[in-house]
Design a protein that fits this description.
This protein has about 170 residues and is of the alpha/beta class. It has three helices and six strands, in the order ββββαβαβα. It folds into two domains: about 110 residues, 3-Layer(aba) Sandwich (Aminopeptidase), CATH 3.40.630.10; about 40 residues, no CATH class. About 25% of the residues lie in helices and about 15% in strands.
C-alpha cells in the first residue's frame, strides 16, 4: 500500500469543549474472484431497485458517505459540534487494518471512533482481527534410501498448522 494515501479532513470547533471523534471508513475491497461468475463487471456501479451494486458500494463507500452526510445534517440542524472531528478515508482494512493504523501512527487520535462498517444493522464494539506471521520449519535432509533417518519439513509444517488450528479453536 506504499503508493496509496489516506485522506483525513478535520473539523475544528470554535471552542474545544467536548470529546473528540473520528469518523472512519475504508476504500479498499476484497478480491473479486473469477469475474466470469459475476452478472456484470464487478467494477461497474449499477442501480437496481434503489440500491447501488458494485465493488465497495456497501463495504464501505456507503459508510464513508454516511459519515459526511451525518456531519452535514448536524450542521444543517443549526448545531455546532463541540470538539474536533476527524473524517478518515483509509486505504486498507480488508486484510489487516493497516490504513487506520497508518492514520493512528500519523497522530490522528480521538476520544471515540465510529466506523460505519456494514454489520447487518448491529452495533458492534469489537470484531475479529488478523495476525500475519511467518513460521520457518526445518527438516533433516537425507538420502531417499534412508528416509527414516531424516525428517520432512512439510511434516513439521503440518504439526505447526495443527497446533495453530487448536489455538484458533481455543480462542
Ligand atoms: Zn469493510
Amino acid at each position: 500500500f506504499g503508493d496509496l494515501t489516506n485522506v483525513v479532513g478535520t473539523y475544528t470547533p470554535p471552542e474545544e469543549k467536548g470529546r473528540s471523534l473520528i469518523l472512519n471508513g475504508h476504500i479498499d475491497v476484497v478480491p473479486t474472484g473469477p469475474e466470469e461468475t459475476w452478472e456484470r463487471s464487478p467494477w461497474d456501479a449499477a442501480m437496481k431497485d434503489g440500491w447501488m451494486y458494485g465493488r465497495g458500494a456497501g463495504d464501505m463507500k456507503a459508510g464513508l458517505a454516511a459519515n459526511l452526510f451525518a456531519f452535514d445534517a448536524i450542521r444543517a440542524a443549526g448545531l455546532t459540534p463541540a470538539s474536533t472531528i476527524h473524517f478518515q478515508s483509509v486505504v486498507e482494512e480488508e486484510c489487516t487494518g493497516n490504513g487506520s493504523l497508518a492514520a493512528l501512527q500519523r497522530g490522528y487520535t480521538a476520544d471515540a471512533v465510529i466506523i460505519p462498517e456494514p454489520e447487518e444493522n448491529m452495533l458492534v464494539r469489537a470484531n475479529v482481527g488478523v495476525i500475519w506471521f511467518r513460521v520457518r520449519v526445518s527438516g533433516k535432509p537425507t538420502h531417499v534410501r534412508e528416509m527414516a533417518s531424516g525428517f520432512n519439513a512439510i511434516d513439521a509444517a503440518y504439526t505447526v498448522m495443527g497446533a495453530l488450528r487448536e489455538l484458533e479453536a481455543k480462542w
